[in-house]
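Record type: monomer structure entry
Structure origin: computed from sequence
Chain ID: A
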Amino acid sequence: MKISKILGLITMAFLLVFSACEPIEDRDVLSNSFDPDNIELAVVQATNGGNKLSIQMQTEGVIGYWDYILDVKHTDRVEVVFPFTGTHEFTYYATTPYMPNNNPAETEYVQKTVSVEITQLDERLPDAYYYLVGDDLAGKTWVFDGGPAPDGGLWWFMSDPTNPWGVWWNAGGECCPPADAAGKMVFDVSGNANYTYYADAAGEPVTGSKFKFNGDYSKITIEGPANLLGSMEGGGNAGVFDIVELTADKMVLHVPNAAWATGWTWVFVPQQ
């Protein structure tokens, strides 16, 4: 009897252990329940079809940022003069309380878009667009201010990282112009901020690239399959360029971080 009682107690103990390990109920995997449908967005145009816009996130208690093609701003409202016609989508990224991997350092966003149709550029754009694209915004072609053979001029050269005109090696003017020295670039705002590249005057166009300015028009970025003329190995080819000078008659660009810890400078003029 004693042995059977002992065995019975051991059996009961095992049953208690295994039953305690079983879940009492099914548990859902923690996920983000923030619903973007609850966010109200609007684009208010100053005139019917006009390009002066107020891009708004109108829901109280929501924080995040706008990506409105031209730039990104951490605010609920953006006032902007948009530079091209067409139908465009702007995206608001809302911060949520959900922490991926239960890590307070990580933030998850939900996004919602709003579209607007711009049929006229009735509000004057910043001057940089007219300089780059032309007074009538119909498009403008730029070429190197020299070359394509070495000619002693300063139009594509290694420079001081802190001084665009501090010449360290006049590559284009002295001996070693880039392979596309005879090429051209076309900037236009027909439906988007378009950039078209030609390796030489008679070459096939490389299309599908875009350009954009930063907020204070001190930089220009080229995005897409093409890059700036002279973006050769060692010549700086990151796609983001400091604007040293931009007028109707000249464009001077610079990068402070080209290869070999140098700067690089480009000088362009409108094609005649």
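Annotation 1: The first helix runs from residue 2 to 21.
Annotation 2: The helical segments are 2-21, 127-133, 171-174.
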